[in-house]
Amino acid sequence: MVNSITRYFKGIWYAVIGRAHLQTDKLSENPTVVRGVYEDIIRAKQGNIQRYKEAIGQLMALVEQKKNSLKRLTNDIVELENRKADVTQKMGTIAAELREAGTPEEEVAQHPEYARYVFANDDFDYTLKKKNVRVTKLERDIKRAQADIEHHKRQIISLHHDLDEIKTEQSEAIEDTIAARDQEEIDNILSDISKDDTSEDE
Hints:
Layout (H helix, E strand, L loop, with lengths): L1 H16 L13 H70 L4 H6 L1 H90 L1
């Protein structure tokens, strides 16, 4: 379960951080096209970030489920320990009564009523042992999941910074495209003027 969640997060993470390598020589000189290319990348990354957040939400819900299970289990253990304490007390009372009645020690252990409480006590011990093992596992899972959540929250902050950088790149790329187009127009005008001057000199 934990491994599948980890693989899921890794898949989303790689999709989110993946950068489209924009080749300027392959882009149109039209600023609108440049803007459109970046908008597609931004939308894709925003969608991936949203899915990443949803995955974190699912992990948080899973942690809450485990916390609820832990709480129920802890309550069960308290109840079992109280019942076990009652059984232990009754075992002592029966043993004391049998000894006072002169029952030999070896027969005390074999007495049906005493043996019934011994069996109940052993059963409580077995059940408590299993539940305590489960508690340890739940506590470990919760601690690990909470650490994962904190890690993923930090990753989300990093992803938003990455998205901001792409938006900045978008603005710069558009400005560069416009500047390059304007420069080309200026070069063409100057070239035409230069040709006119050359023609007049001839």
